[in-house]
Write a structure and sequence with these properties.
The structure holds two protein chains of two kinds. By secondary structure, chain A is an all-alpha fold. Chain A contains four helices and no strands. Chain A starts with a helix and ends in an 11-residue tail after the last helix. The C terminus of chain A is likely disordered. Chain B has two domains: about 70 residues, no CATH class; about 45 residues, no CATH class. Helices cover about 45% and strands about 5% of the residues of chain B. Chain B is built from eight helices and two strands; from the N terminus they run αααααααββα. Chain B has a two-stranded antiparallel sheet. Chain B is elongated. Classes of the chains: A mainly alpha, B mainly alpha.
């Protein structure tokens, strides 16, 4: 590999890494589910939850976020990076050290 | 935290409005052989494509949600508990919910904008969900300069 080619490859790698991280962290910061999910669950079965999927706004928000995430993963399919793993790492950093691990049976 | 298939289905039903047990069964099929480390197999984009071919685009979305839950990107709020219909979590004061996701709004004519040119937005109560650190509000700056000229 020639020096120019090597430099270009390094620059491409750095740019790719930056863009992938930025796009994933943007998606994670936009995550609406963290806010909506507790409100969509009722503590008791007899109680009505604050929000439900029937609300068109809730449906739109969740669907568009999931579509964005799917499109981002599709777009980065050819990138030499584990997008899901990177997203999980970024989410762990965003959520802080309190988040639990993923060990377990299922 | 480990999620059972039932919990995956519950989250799908809540967020997507439907749930197909076959999706989660396919995604977690390797648990029989690999045990707790089964996520090294079947939790990938290729699996999403396969599920879309087998069961359709709705199933792909459900499988994506399964991936996000397993990667702890989508989390059930275990520590804080569920929110009741009255708008508070059992055992916690109502303000714990009310103060959760409020993002400060900069109004037109806010003197902080005209004085400093930028406004520091504090980190929200739960952290990391909205803006963090210092955000320079370019629009606010423009409005502020326009306001001071006026």
């Amino acid at each position: 590999m020639e020096p120019n080619e090597k430099d270009r490859a390094i620059q491409t790698g750095i740019a790719l890494d930056t863009y992938v991280s930025q796009s994933l962290s943007l998606l994670l910061k936009l995550n609406p589910v963290e806010t909506l999910l507790p409100m969509m669950q009722s503590a008791n079965k007899s109680e009505t939850p604050l929000l439900s999927r029937e609300d068109a706004r809730v449906k739109g928000i969740i669907d568009s976020w999931l579509t964005m995430f799917d499109e981002a993963l599709k777009a980065g399919r050819t990138a030499p990076a584990d997008l899901l793993g990177r997203a999980a790492t970024l989410a762990r950093e965003l959520n802080g050290p309190k988040s639990e691990g993923t060990s377990g049976n299922q | 935290m480990a999620r059972s298939r039932k919990e995956h289905q519950e989250i799908s039903r809540l967020l997507l409005g439907y749930s197909d047990p076959r999706v989660h069964s396919l995604m977690d099929w390797h648990v029989r052989f690999l045990g707790p480390g089964h996520r090294i197999a079947g939790h990938s984009l290729q699996m999403l494509d396969a599920i879309e071919m087998l069961l359709g685009p709705d199933a792909r979305r459900e499988a994506l949600l399964h991936l996000l839950v397993d990667a702890r990107i989508v989390r059930m709020n275990e520590s804080a508990g569920r929110v009741t219909s009255r708008g508070f979590r059992p055992g916690q004061p109502a303000k714990s919910v009310a103060h959760t996701e409020l993002v400060p709004v900069v109004h037109v004519g806010d003197d902080r904008v005209a004085r400093e040119g930028s406004v520091r937005i504090p980190r929200p109560a739960r952290g990391g969900q909205a803006a963090s650190g210092q955000m320079t509000l370019f629009v606010g700056e423009m409005v502020g300069s326009w306001w001071s000229r006026k």
